[in-house]
Structure formats: C-alpha cells, structure tokens
Design a protein that fits this description.
- The complex is a heterodimer of chains A (about 110) and B (about 120).
- Chain A has no helices and 11 strands.
- By secondary structure, chain A is mainly beta.
- The relative contact order of chain A is 0.33.
- In chain B, strands 2, 4, 5, 6, 9, 10 and 11 form a 7-stranded mixed beta sheet that branches. In chain B, strands 1-3-8-7 form a 4-stranded antiparallel beta sheet, with no helix packed on it.
- Classes of the chains: A mainly beta (about 110), B mainly beta (about 120).
Amino acid sequence: AQSVTQLGSHVSVSEGALVLLRCNYSSSVPPYLFWYVQYPNQGLQLLLKYTSAATLVKGINGFEAEFKKSETSFHLTKPSAHMSDAAEYFCAVSFTGGGNKLTFGTGTQLKVEL
Amino acid sequence: EAGVTQFPSHSVIEKGQTVTLRCDPISGHDNLYWYRRVMGKEIKFLLHFVKESKQDESGMPNNRFLAERTGGTYSTLKVQPAELEDSGVYFCASSQDGVWNTDTQYFGPGTRLTVL
C-alpha cells in the first residue's frame, strides 16, 4: 500500500539556520508529491509540488524540495529560517490510479527560535 | 477571490447528537474534497465530489456520515449520531480540474468538532 512518512513530529531550529523537514514515501507507481503548510487558525497552503518534471522544485517563501527516486524521498529545505516559518508542515502524495485524493504524513511542527 | 470557507469553525456537541458541517468551495471549482484529522494522527481523505456527484467516498468511516453537494456548489457533511471518536478537525478542499493527480487542492481553515 502507498504511504507517506514524515520523520520528526517536532523540529526546532534557530533563526537563520537551515530548515530540513523529511518526507519519505512508499509507492509501487510514480507518485506526485506535495508539501503543504498550516499556520495557526488557517487552512493548509500549498508550498510546492512535484509533478514528474524537474526533480528540484522551488516553492513559495524560499522553500524547495528535491525528489529522489532512489531514496524514495522528498525532503523540504530552506537555507535560512525565519520566525514567520513557524508552522506545521505536511507532506502529501497522490498516486496514478488512486484518484485525486491526497495521502498525508502525520505532519511536522516547526519551531524557530531566536 | 474568496478562498474555501467552512462553517462553523468550532462545534461542541454531546454524544448521540447530530452536527452538520458546511463547506463553500472556491467559485468555479467543480471538485470538492472532505478530509479529517483526528488529534495526533494524519489528515485522512473522506470523499471527493465532482460537481454534485460522489466520485470517491472510499474514506467515509461509516454510515453515520452523510455528505451532500446539491447543485454542485456548497457541500454539507452530517454526522448522525455523533460518537466520541468523531472528534477532530474536518477540512474541506476544492480544485478546479480534478483530472490530473497534480491538480492543486485549496484547503479551508477546518471545522474543529468536539464530541463529549
């Protein structure tokens, strides 16, 4: 069965430090991959998505993710964390033949400290 | 352009009562989705409408849940009777095309349901 795993339910970084949020997937068919962010009291907002074009995907707010088929990973990175990046981040996948439904990971709460 | 809206934002009910959640998608979006997040768990798919038709309802937990989308505009999700395990945040999302798996789904802020 297809699934998504996010390693680390809570990640804490210092302002200005590298942000790395991990996502691994399990799939027997090519996946489409998404990262969403949820700020307090708001809906999920799409950060970026991989659609089988370029393996390095750039998103909003300086985030990017790289699809690595050999590692079945789609980790999210940002070179320099900002206080405003504090939020919950969700990795999600959809699968060819699986309809349009998204399968989510359990989420990673990012804390940014001064 | 208005985003996806959901009403109410919070609902607290007693076990056995009925609750109806409403979702208004982005205007012009034919595809509407319901998801649920039980505390501490992942967000899980419930069902997918294309206009007024149920395209995929494989995630609906049981027959106490009834989703409708009359006229292909807003949607309601009714839980009757509510049980303790129904507590969680219910998200609605909409998308324009829905043909491809890469179609972006736009999410509402969610309705937090608490069943006591």
